[in-house]
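Homework help thread (please don't just give me the answer)

Our assignment gives two proteins as sequence + structure token strings and asks us to describe the second one. The first is just a warm-up. Here they are:
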Amino acid sequence: MKRIYTADITPKLNNKEVFLQGWIHEIRDLSKVKFIILRDDSGLIQLIIKDKSDIIKLPKESIIEVSGIVIANKQAPNGVEVIIKKYKVLSEAEQNLPIQVVEKGKIETNLAKRLDFRSIDLRKPKVHAIFKIQAALVEGMQEYLQKENFTQVFTPCIMGTASESGAEVFPIVYYNKEAFLRQDPQLHRQLTILGGIEKLYDIGPSWRAEVSHTTKHLSEHRTCAVEFAFIKDEIDVERVEEQLIISALKKVKEKCNKELKLFNIDITIPKAPFPELRFPEIYDILKKLGKKINYGDDIDSEAEKLLNEYVKKKYKSEFYFINRFPSKIKPFYVMKVDETPEWARSIDLYYNGLELSSGGQREHRYGKLMQHVKEKGMKIENIEWFIKFFKYGAPSHGGFAIGIERLTQMLLNLENVREAVLFPRDPERLTP
């Protein structure tokens, strides 16, 4: 008999025989009747034990396969249950679990211990749901990009030179020489644009060697990075990015109703265009809100919170862009505004006060790029592998990279971004 998943068992199958496989989630002994709650990738179902079977003695999290008869029952979870006819133990778990999959009462396992035993932690339906939702977010992004004729590409994760700041890169031994894990697929995306692939995206990991212990930083994270050519300016980038977000949220709402209920979340699809705040006007906004930042300086976390409250009050929006950052704080490849070069065509997308992405228009003019490299005090020989191609014809272009884990964190109101990573990497954690 072919296996059926718990989510596919409905009252329509009443009196039909089914074959299931999964984990023993809970055992309920009510003296006259005994139940097993079976869990698989799709959800939970109640199994009824009619005889004096030893199945009731199995430890929770043991894996079994079951043949049984479906019974429609309005009192049962999801209106259906299965009477066990026969079963087989596929893998018996140890009696004492290092962490509980079913946590009762107000006592919860702390995050550090959960991550130590992550493979068991992932079995919790609510934790499991995080990654169903995350997968739908990415699917929604890809659906939009493919509809708009973007080509998926795969850029290298190993760099011969540090792409941005040497202090925040992970050096690795590459045969007999030093190399680095990429901080961002930025530069190779640009070279691919110069190679004639005008619209592209790259989903994959990046690394930053920041000794940070905040709830929003990781040493290894994943992005959906998008780049496209022949843009007028950075506003074209904003229009693509907001449609990408809308498509991602629509996909979650379409596919993950059951998972969203576990978090008591009802997604509101944002309306485009998203609000935009710009430098230097941001300094005046913050001043009115009681926060003084020196002209030409970047905003800090306190300023981010104030601007989030300002946008929610004025625009009633959870998503918004910040544009025209001070050029002195941006990498060499970011285009400056020609008329006011102290400002860059650089945009960050924020979601409820958390930066989700960085992007904007890239500098495609060889002469300007060389000028930026000199201004930043960079050694030309270290970036020649990249910059030389701009001598041979480069279209205007721009893009962004959205943090997949951060988007998941904010959507589900998770306290720590590590909860949105299967096996997180931070300054202290390298296993499992």
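The one we have to describe:
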Amino acid sequence: MMYRSLNSHSRRDFLRYGGGAIAALALAPAWSCLPSPAGAYIPAGDTPPPSELDVKIGQMILAGFRDDQLKDKNPIIADIQERCLGGVVLFDYDVAWHKAKRNIKSPKQLAALDAALQATTPYPPLLISTDQEGGRINRLKPAYGFPPSYSQQYLGELNDLAFTHECADTTAETLVSAGINLNLAPVVDLNVNPECPIIGYYERSFSSHPEIVTAHALEVIAAHHQHGVLTTLKHFPGHGSSTSDSHQGFVDVTNTWSEIELEPFRNIIQAGMCDVVMTAHIFNAHLDPDYPATLSQPTITGILRDQLGWDGVVITDDMGMGAITQYYGFETAIELAVEAGADILAYAINSAVFDPTIPARAFQVIKGLVENGFIRESRIDQSYRRIMRLKDRLMR
């Protein structure tokens, strides 16, 4: 593949890599020619600049971090500047983590943090994400000074699309003011099992009826788009029929899942309203007799991409969840997820046991897999093109 220098192209052109007239752009040779926002990393002395491959791989990682200010020694800075991290996920304080210092404290503090994050990246825009579904799953809580919200179940039971749009409009406006450009919502799982410990229990599903889920999810997405915020459909191929929680361990939906759970994903993709799809760590022997959805090529590439026609970004659910870590080694899980068709690997580091080296380790694993021939660089290129097309929409 021939690469053209960035010298004659703008940063906007760079972000359109693979998405328009610029078929491919050289990154490493033109590092010094890129505009440098305040705080951007500029290699000094004998420190080598990130290579083209480094940039592509870094964009495939979304990570959590600690602290509500971007202090100089925070490892996330090196992840962003030296490893070209493509995105972060924000969490609020939680007693379960012994009041561990997370990211969200107040509207003013959060806006300052997110501005600092964007000023740090050499390749804006950074995807800054959070789970703002509403109801019990919301990171921007009234206790911190943010507007109250309703659960998706409440909105689905009310079944007033105008009210759902109004609520989503408030959410999107809140996200924009905080500097968040990607909401890890809406949930489009069907409420097949109201006793499901991770979907039904937390009132995260609009309904057990796919047409109701589709209609309300489309209102949520439309309201976010009006404010320039991207959204995420989750959890593919459907977590609502499960009887256990993939945060805790193995989840088998072989005998509870049905194809109707694909309907909201199919409908929203066909409507042209899908931005990102998040995978579920659920196992279904009828779809893949070997691996859970996040690590399953038949599920991600076969069903989501080939059958449902989705060629946009696929992000994994947190790779630190028990359904993955209890059964697969760190390196194996990464290789399987990438080969399955995932574009962004999420490491929310959402636990009391916090390891700030995880993003760097994931970066090195992917790079090693490519350099040693276990993953083709053309596969990395696929994900990079999808991510750049997504980010290009944030620049318009």
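TA reply:
I won't write it for you, but here's a hint about the kind of observation we're looking for: The chain has one domain: 53-394.
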